Amino acid sequence: MGKARAKQDDAGSSDRVLCLLVHGDAAFAGQGIIYESFCLSGVPSFTPHGIVHIICNNQIGYTTVPREGRTSMYSSDICKMNGVPVVHVNADHPEEVFKVAQLAVEYRQKFKKDFMIDLIGKGNYV
């Protein structure tokens, strides 16, 4: 986030630099830095003017099924606290993933706010 913001300042425009963060599902739900990032995302001196987040949601990082490891169905549910739109997309359909990625970038460019793509892989939510 900080590097993207610095490059935006150097470029003189937030439209020329996109902050893209890729997360694992277990790390996204379990790391405090995610919460801190969301809290700072609206602070004028810190914001990278919208981040496109992608969660690779394949359950590899968990040692338990989601219903026994957290209070919500999806690790991306923490985005609800900041009103970040979340789109769950089947990772096995690349055309759909591409469409959602286009939507994410268009949303970020227009509103300067975060957008979450939750890639759902095989073997989830048993």
Structural features, described:
- The mean pLDDT is 86.
- Strand 3 (86-90), helix 5 and strand 4 form a beta-alpha-beta unit.
- 37% of the residues lie in helices and 19% in strands.
- It contains five helices and four strands.
- Strands 1-2-4-3 form a four-stranded parallel beta sheet.
- The chain has 126 residues and is α/β, with parallel strands linked by helices.
- The N and C termini lie far apart (34 Å).
- The relative contact order is 0.20.
- It has helices spanning 2-11, 25-30, 32-40, 66-69, 94-111; strands at 19-24, 51-57, 86-90, 115-120.
- The chain has a domain at 24-84.
What proportion of the residues form beta strands (DSSP E)? Answer: 15-25%
Order of helices and strands: HEHHEHEHE
Spans of at least 5 consecutive residues whose pLDDT stays below 50 are none
Radius of gyration: 15 Å
Q: Can you tell me the overall shape? A: globular
Sheet with the most strands, sense and barrel status: 4 strands, parallel
- The assigned structural class equals alpha/beta
Average pLDDT: 86
| Amount of helix | 25-40%
The number of helical segments is: 5
Strand order of the largest sheet: 1-2-4-3
N- to C-terminal separation? 34 Å
Q: List how many beta strands DSSP finds.
A: 4
Topology:
Layout: H1 2-11, E1 19-24, H2 25-30, H3 32-40, E2 51-57, H4 66-69, E3 86-90, H5 94-111, E4 115-120
In short:
The protein is an alpha/beta fold.
Spell out the key features of this protein.
4-stranded parallel sheet, alpha/beta
